[in-house]
Amino acid sequence: MKINKKILGGVAALSAASLVLVGCSSDDGGADPEASGTDTPAESNADAIIRTNGSEPQNPLIPGNTNETGGGKIIDAIFAGLVSYDAEGAASNEVAADIVVEDPQNLTVTLQDGWTFTDGTPVTANSFVDAWNYTANLDNAYYNSYFFEDIEGFSWDEPVEAMSGLEVVDDLTFTIALNKPAADFAQRLGYSAFYPLPEAFFEDPETFGQNPIGNGQYMLAGEDAWQNDVQIELVTNPDYAGTRTPQNGGLTITFYATQDAAYADLLGGNVDVIDGIPDSALAVYEEELGDRAVNQPAAIFQSFTIPERLEHFGMDEEGQLRRQAMSLAINREEITDVIFQGTRTPASDFTSPVVDGWTDSLEGADVLSYDAELAADLWAQADEINPWTGTFQLAYNADGGHQAWVDATVNSIRSTLGIEAEGYPYATFAELREDVTTDVIESAFRTGWQADYPGLYNFLGPLYATNAGSNDGDYSNPEFDALLEEGISTEDGPTRNDLLQQAQEILLQDLPAIPLWYSNVNGGYSEAVSNVVFGWNSVPIYYEITKN
Amino acid sequence: MLRYILRRLLQAIPVFFGTTFLLYFMVFSMPGDPILALFGDRTPNEAVYNSLVEQYNLDEPFIVQYLLYMRDLFTGNLGVTFSGRSVNEVFADAFPVTLMLVTMAVIFEFVLAAVLGLISGLRAGKLSDQFNLVVALVLNSIPAFVAMFFAQYFIALGLGWAPVTVGANATWSTMWLPALTIALTLYVVGMRLMRGSVIESRGADYVRTAYAKGLTSRRVTPVHVARNSLIPVITNTAASFGALIAGTTVTEGIFNIPGIGKVLYDAIIGGQGPTIVSFVTILTVMYIIVNILVDLLYAVLDPRIRYV
To answer: Alphabetically, which GO biological process terms does the record hold (chain A) (predicted)?
Structure first.
């Protein structure tokens, strides 16, 4: 393989993430077209096209089957869901007029009247229900089908044409019955898997995937708007009925093979906004771009997982002491500073600062700060129970640019605890995931998580609940499960977050994974544009951007 | 001649099967599970996983997958990408761009090699020859991607003489900088060949005879020296054409040129086995054809060579 930054960038994006989310709403001024109109210096610029970076979608442009950032960015621009998220991750209604949570297992959704798809057909309750049923149907094997597993009637064992939990009451009303309490279900509805689909989709999904018909702020500029491997041109949708009205005339998303090329284009003024900075420029981009550089935490949590089945790391006293000692032995501040040039933020919990309810002052969070003395002390206590043998190994995929931090982390562990510790590279991400999923791996391994929707539960439930889909370390703690369950059954937001935080405090004691840091989104914009804000999901909020 | 061409074409058949088989085997034995990788850090549900495995024939044994693939290949169907586009179409979009880039690069390479080689050969040992040599050595020793970054940063960004990236406007005028940069890292071999044969032919009997006939060097140099010396340069340049078609990945990445290299690269990153194999298969065929053409070129240019 040739030396090429894309290897790092591309795979890092794929591995950190599987999903990227919806565009964002905002109630703060930007959403009001008249107010913003006066902010814009020249009237004619309201039609200006914003140029940004992206990558060729890896799947057809169908919301239920898009689980990577390249397609996600486009899908979010051309579709509107029941709710949308603002820059801070707070959800507000978009197509929905009202979402009534009858109880944690039953919701009634009422739609606003007057929404249409760009082919002129109305957005009705059926547009949602049919789309969800299609995505959830096992026969279609859509990537995002798991979003519907909480709905009554969903099955992983046999294809289900129509889930019994979805019931259309009239054109603008439908009800959702869940098979288990999920009080944050309404909060999830802004994710792209929940977008509506027009009838045209069901007639011919393949054609639709190349020329999608949406109901969002933007639409494809024409039949040939998507030039594969080159770019896609979007223009504003005149029939968009929501409040997130674009302040520009459209979006041109250029598909870059490397972040280097995108960055060079930003410097050359050929692209307006980019949401990635190549490794080669991390040290200088803040200097080169000044206040047009963006560096803020993203909804991405990085950690390494120590499976319970490893010798010395069981969920007993010895294992807990060793896990805590490991965590205390890592100098996160120094590694994020030196290795990542400040583009990571040391973790203080298992979620991310961009989600609602996040706090850095959980009980027991001090186990995440560097304390060499305490670490050595706890390690010695564990040795008294059962003397340490062997080498501590941390597995990672060598194609994702992880070697530098893994080496720094194991060095930190080695020097603090006085044990043999080393990185264990896998050639590819696919190879690492195969060994992790099949429980073949006999070492600790790097893990990461990007949120699907901005909620605490999304960082905890899928990863640490007993038998959860992505519980790579096979962690199981009834106490944690109970708090999680109680939290997700609680309708009141603050109380729910409180319970979930209590669950996190158990994680901080057990440390099924050792939290490392939150990834930041790094990006920048040119002098030609203003009002650039990056959303909670690390994607610029395109509709607010104006051209000078 | 005809028999020679036929023989070469027949020889190409085992090469074709050998390379496709090897390729398929290598892609097949790439460690790791491409379906799992599609889901990032999330573990897919078993049912979804199984159905995807089936969809891409990944549950069949290797040899069955290979035969299925060959069957499709001979019916002109190169398969579909994960995004549902036919690989034929992807190739048809990307190939003209790469062809344009490579053609331009090869023309630059040929002109540089011929002109500088001729100067060096005519002034062998003099200052301009030494200077040519040093410059060529420096350029030749710079890795291609460094040269690309350098050209992009200083010439496109700094001086603004060329577009920083190519993107949607892949035309002759937007791609001259990457083409020239490729040429600059490649021309040295051709230049040395030219220099050597210029020196050789200047001492040859027919050149002495030409001068003895009373011709001026103005006539001798282009007609008798340069023309005969160009033969090795032409074949060398033509051979690099084949190599370049498949070797522009780095250039296309840096200048964001939507050609074969970029598409192939995306396919590798995405673990899209069928796309990789199809692309490389086409490139293999083209490489074989270009090589046959180069060999035939010898016969056309050099009357001493006859194929039987």
So the answer is: peptide transport
Residue at A345: amino acid letter: T
State the count of interchain CB pairs (< 8 A) between A and B.
Answer: 191
Is the Cβ–Cβ distance between B16 and B285 less than 8 Å?
Answer: yes
With contacts defined as CB-CB under 8 Å, which chain A residues touch B253? Answer: 4, 6, 257-258, 260-261
B249 touches chain A (CB under 8 A): yes
Sign of the CA dihedral A341, A347, A351, A356? Answer: negative
Name every chain A residue with its beta carbon within 8 A of the beta carbon of B93.
228-229
pLDDT in tens, B117-159: 999 988 888 898 999 989 988 988 888 888 888 899 898 888 8
Q: How far is A313 from chain B, CA to nearest CA, in Å?
A: 22
Contact B32, A433 (CB under 8 A): yes
Pairing of strands A173-177, A106-111: antiparallel
Which residue from B41, B51, B145 is facing A15, i.e. has the nearest CB? Answer: B41
- C-alpha–C-alpha distance, residues A203 and A13, integer Å: 34
With H, G, I as helix, E, B as strand and everything else as coil, classify residue B259.
Answer: coil
**Per-residue DSSP letters for B157-226?**
IIS-SS-S--TT--STTTSHHHHHHHHHHHHHHHHHHHHHHHHHHHTSHHHHHHHHTT--HHHHIIIIII
> How far from B289 is each of A84, A333, B13, B276, CA to CA, in Å?
56, 58, 11, 20
| E runs forming strands in A55-143 | 83-85, 91-93, 96-103, 106-111
What dihedral do alpha carbons B46, B48, B51, B55 form, nearest 10°? -130
Rounded-to-5 percentages of helix, strand, coil across chain A: 35, 20, 45
d(CA B139, CA B116): 14
- pLDDT tens digits for A429-474? 878 888 888 888 999 999 988 888 888 999 998 899 998 878 888 8
On whether the CB atoms of residues B32 and A429 are closer than 8 A, the answer is: yes
Domains of chain A (ranges plus CATH)?
62-213 (3.90.76.10), 297-521 (3.10.105.10)
Residue entry with tokens 């279609």: A140
- The answer to whether A160 and A136 have CB atoms below 8 angstroms apart is yes
Q: Over the range A495-515, which residues count as b (16 or more CB within 10 Å of their CB) and which as e?
A: ebbebbbbbbbbbbebbbbbb
Q: Which two tokens stand for residue A396?
A: 């990672």
d(CA A92, CA A25): 7
Q: Which of B38, B42, B254 comes nearest A470 by C-beta?
A: B42
Q: CB neighbours (10 Å) of residue B212?
A: 9
The CATH number corresponding to B91-301 among 1.10.3720.10, 3.30.1330.40, 3.90.1590.10, 2.40.50.100 equals: 1.10.3720.10
Encode pLDDT of A2-32 as tens digits.
Answer: 333 233 333 333 333 333 332 333 333 333 3
Using a CB-CB distance cutoff of 8 angstroms, which residues of chain B are in contact with residue A59? 82-84
**Which positions in chain B touch A135 (Cβ < 8 Å)?**
none
Closest C-alpha among A105, A262, A121, A115 to residue A177: A105
CA dist., res. B167 & res. A256, Å (int): 8
Sheet with A96-103: strands ordered across: A96-103, A106-111, A173-177, A166-170
Amino acid at B215: L
A520 φ/ψ angles, rounded to the nearest 5 degrees: -100, 160
Q: What is the ipTM of this complex?
A: 0.79
Query: Which residue bears the tokens 């509805």?
Result: A189
* Environment class of A203 (CB within 10 Å of its CB; exposed 0-12, middle 13-18, buried 19+): exposed
Q: What angle do CA B260, A67, A516 make, to 5 degrees?
A: 105
Rounded to a whole number, what is the distance in Å from the CA of A30 to chain B's nearest CA?
31
CA A305/CA B119 separation, integer angstroms: 65
Domain residue extents for chain B: 2-74, 91-301
